[in-house]
Specification:
It comes from Nannospalax galili. The chain is of the alpha/beta class and 208 residues long. It is built from seven helices and six strands. Helices cover 39% and strands 23% of the residues. It has a six-stranded mixed sheet with strand order 3-2-1-4-6-5, with helices on both faces. Helix 6 links the parallel strand 2 and strand 3. The N and C termini lie far apart (54 Å).
């Protein structure tokens, strides 16, 4: 880790650790609004691996040429996933996020065909009807309530025939733990990382 990143690490750990304790949706979205200007720098310090891991999972699931596939990046944030997608040849990328400031950062990258303000579970996802949906989240103890609620939403979409699950892949080294509290039994302690999970779904076309 570079000297500047080492110097900033305690500040980043404190900021991200505080976010992990936010359960109210409006407060969570407000936090991300305020975090947007420094988000990319902070997650780099945290060694956040979700974007590259998600795109690796996606690439393995798709047998055809990447440019033929339409990707809906849910909770796209500043567009870090789109950077990884573009590097692997994916060209048809759309994104949604609940934070206008995060979407401004994503828009500035110029990698998305379309971006929409949308919060999963609160509003319907935008068209197109078909395509793949890739989501990621932490799998450590402090995030288990959110993970459970997210999976309930995903299950309801699948049972309704709207989405089809292609993969649910757990990863040990997701990002650096922000405190010892996150290193409880059942989580990965390898090199100070916590686990995460990647979900990949195909959004089904609605019958006319």
């Amino acid at each position: 880790m570079a000297q500047e990143e080492t110097r900033r690490l305690p500040q980043v750990l404190a900021r991200v650790g505080a976010s992990h304790g936010i359960t109210d949706l409006a407060c969570k979205l407000r936090f991300y609004e305020e975090w947007a200007p420094e988000y990319d720098q902070d997650v780099a310090v945290l060694e956040y691996r979700a974007p590259s891991l998600a795109v690796e999972c996606l690439s393995q699931a798709l047998p055809g040429p990447p440019h033929d596939n339409l990707i809906l990046d849910v909770a796209c944030g500043t567009g870090l996933v789109a950077v990884e997608l573009q590097a692997r040849g994916f060209l048809q990328i759309q994104g949604v996020d609940g934070s206008p400031e995060m979407l401004k950062k994503a828009q500035a990258r110029g990698l998305y065909h379309h971006l929409s303000l949308c919060t999963l579970g609160q509003e319907p996802l935008p068209s197109p009807e078909g395509g793949l949906v890739c989501l990621t989240t932490r799998a450590n103890p402090s995030n288990l309530p959110y993970k459970k609620a997210l999976e309930a939403t995903l299950d309801s979409l699948e049972h309704a025939g709207a989405w089809e699950q292609l993969a649910a892949q757990t990863v040990d080294c997701w990002e650096l733990a922000t405190s010892e509290l996150e290193m409880m039994p059942g989580t990965s302690t390898k090199d100070g990382f916590i686990p995460g999970i990647i979900y990949l779904y195909r959004k089904q076309k609605v019958a006319q």
